[in-house]
Each structure stands twice: as structure tokens, then as C-alpha cells.
Design goal:
- With about 120 residues, the chain is an alpha+beta fold.
- Helix content is about 25%, strand content about 25%.
- It is built from three helices and five strands.
- Strands 1, 2, 3, 4 and 5 form a five-stranded mixed β-sheet that branches.
- Helix 1 links the parallel strand 3 and strand 4.
- The termini are far apart.
């Protein structure tokens, strides 16, 4: 099974209009689903520049999970890169594939446990 990014969303910018010049970070949500099958789930990451990281880490260490570091925020390059990263992944089922995708972005069901009464 393979996955495909169906769309991108961000509260920081209207992505169909591009991103504002000089933006040093962008919250990006990928809506990803199994290729050739219905359904999608969200995977969130922060796209940021080294300057943004330096500013955030000025007071000490910074954990870097779910970060994509780019020289400058070019939305076409970011989308192309993420589409290629997602397309190369393959697993036997969605659960295993989503676990791999969660290394790229925070999966909405990450650490979810099904509690039964």
C-alpha cells in the first residue's frame, strides 16, 4: 500500500495565493490517504528557515520533531519535496504506512489508544 497527499492546508497563509514574502515559518497540514482508496487523515508539520530555528533556539536547545527546514519558504518546492517523500513510502496496511508518515508530520491518531469498557 502507498499513500498520496490529497491536499495541503495552513492557517498561516492562503496556499492557493502563495506565501507572503519573508515568512520564516509556516504551519502546514497535509491531508493524506491511501492511494486509490477513499479517506484521508491529517499530518501536521512546521516548515521553517534556519533563521527561525536560530531565533527559537536562542535561549537553549530545541527539539525538532515534525520540522522541515528550508533555506526560504518556496511553497512549490515544499509541496514537491513532501509529495516525493510520501510517494516513496510503502507498507502492508494503512496503520503501518501512517506510522511511517508520522515521522514526517504529526498524525492526528498518533499515540491514540482504543480504550474499551
Amino acid at each position: 500500500m502507498r499513500a498520496r497527499i490529497r491536499s495541503f492546508e495552513s492557517p498561516d497563509a492562503e496556499l492557493d495565493l502563495g506565501v507572503p514574502n519573508g515568512l520564516s515559518s509556516l504551519f502546514l497540514r497535509m491531508l493524506v490517504g491511501p492511494q486509490g482508496e477513499p479517506g484521508e487523515e491529517t499530518f501536521d508539520l512546521t516548515v521553517c528557515t534556519p533563521a527561525w530555528l536560530a531565533d527559537r533556539a536562542a535561549d537553549g536547545p530545541l527539539l525538532g520533531r515534525h520540522l522541515l527546514v528550508v533555506p526560504s519558504i518556496n511553497l512549490d518546492q515544499v509541496k514537491s519535496f513532501l509529495n516525493a517523500q510520501v510517494a516513496r513510502l510503502e507498507e502492508a496496511d494503512w496503520q503501518q504506512l501512517a506510522a511511517k508518515l508520522s515521522r514526517i508530520g504529526f498524525w492526528e491518531f498518533e499515540d491514540y489508544q482504543d480504550y474499551q469498557s
